Hints:
The termini are far apart. This protein is mostly helical and about 100 residues long. It has a domain at about 45-90. Helix 2 crosses helix 3 (about 55-70). It is built from 4 helices and no strands.
Amino acid sequence: MAISKLLIASLLVSLLVLHLAEADQKVNSNQAASYVPGNNIDCGGACHARCSLSSRPRLCKRACGSCCARCKCVPQGTSGNLDTCPCYATLTTRGGRRKCP
């Protein structure tokens, strides 16, 4: 009797783990599908606009350019609006500070 309860419990746990693994795989495949390679953007023009009010425009444009090359997007405006380009918002330096202006 105890063995059958243990068998049923382990079967239920196995099914739960399988279900969670499939759900995680679906989420990961949806994230990969949202990225569209080949989406060309004029990083120079976008970073020029983004850094137009910066106190250190050359440094700003250099950082923005590397972020744009990696993310293929630059948020609109001179600051903020990071929700329009999540990749741009999540890049950090080795020290943990935001990399992109």
